[in-house]
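Friendly challenge for the regulars: who can give me the structure tokens for this chain first? No prize, just bragging rights.
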Amino acid sequence: MSPFSRLSFLTRTSLLLGFFFALDKVLAFLRAILVARIFGLSFELDAFNVANNLPDLLFALISGGALAMAFIPLLTEKRTLQGEAATWDLFSRVANLAFTLTAILAVGIAWFAPQIVRSEIGIAPGFGPQQQRLIVSLMRLNLIATLIFSMSGLVMAALQAHQHFLTPAMAPSLYNIGQIFGALFLAPRFGVHGLVYGVILGAVLHLGVQIPALLRYRFRWTPSLRPDPAVIESLRIFAPRLLTMFLIQLIFIARDNLASRLNQVGAISALTYGWMIMQVPETLLGTALATALLPTLSEYASRREWEAFQRVLSQALKVLIALTLPLAAVLSIVLPPLLEFAFGFGSAGTSLLSWTTRAYLITLCGYALQEVLARAFYARKEPWPPFYGVIIRMVIYLGLGILALRVFAGVGAPLIALAEIALTVEALLLFLWLRKRLPPFQSIHDDILPALGHGLAAAAIGAGGAWLAFLLPLSPLWQAMIGAGLGVSLSYPLLRREIHQAMHLR
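First reply, four minutes later:
Bragging rights claimed.
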């Protein structure tokens, strides 16, 4: 028996997802570096990033993160209690409705795109008329990819509900391959529009790679929009999730709205890239583990096996707390030479991106915990607590962002990124609310606090080791790489218990 096969199913699934998420992040960075070297920190690149906001909002609301997270528990319960035929019938009806709504809203956004861009409460009121026209053009093209994703996102949810994770994990990498093709071969001919053509190609690949798996699980399409009782039950769960995702996407739109008023060239791109960099460790740890956990937590919840539900959830939280804190600390130390080498923005651009990314890394632990805790509520078919949590997060974020703009505008993008500390507040609230629903969580001192102590100690030691590497008589790039390795190595002895738990989640 191979060492991999001796791991628990949840651990194997998390590692599989982590591998493909890592591949996706490598490709995403390659794409980002290619785009950055072609366009630089320019208004044209800012326009491309801003133009993604409303299409991303539409995707997230109708067929992406909104429905997928709420849809998996429903499909899992349907499959567990009623079988495959009922599962695919529910999937078909919801998918038909999602595609229809996406198409209607896409037409509306395309029609009113100029007003959406230029309005004072729109996505880019601080830009000039020429750049606003470019944003409108790019946004309309992006909506084509959104229509394709309206199916692909739900297909991912259906396959994960069947405990099939391989092709859904591969899909994001193919999406990035399409975008890389656009940057290499289409952007030289069509300019920034070529990047959007690459996005459309990536969306086609994202959906196409999952079709064989659908056929393997004997997918049968029901060509109907009739809202039968199962669909109505789904909509009851979806409604608060839709509201939750709407508010989350509004935070991204508010971020770019605030950044457009800074009069700081590259601020929006720095926020976009800084968020993407923070998402690398967050995705490899938080998203991979949370994605693997959701079907299992949903099964435990449908059978009301709350002791098992609490056990696996508690293990996941301890692992994430202990691992994300030292990762954030070490990355914060070694960032500048790595970013200068990768993006080539020059000293001023590298400094802006480094401080923006460091501000985001402060939220890494909270973000990873929020991923798991929100899914725990959806597994219990309790979608309202995450909605209340994101309301509080949004109020805190907007308050801090507006304060940064009015009082510390000279600092710019890093302070807007720091406002995402609201994520940590949201995660803490979700934990406290869930603790009240699961009595075993009363043992917080025995379960969570030791992991927090290990994580903080490992963060201090790892950051110190990474800093010492910069005293070596080497080039900054070599200092950063040695510092990263040294920081991780020094942190490891303090984290052996949590790493062992990560290998045996069940």
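The mean pLDDT is 84. DSSP finds 22 helices and no strands in the chain. Your move, everyone else.
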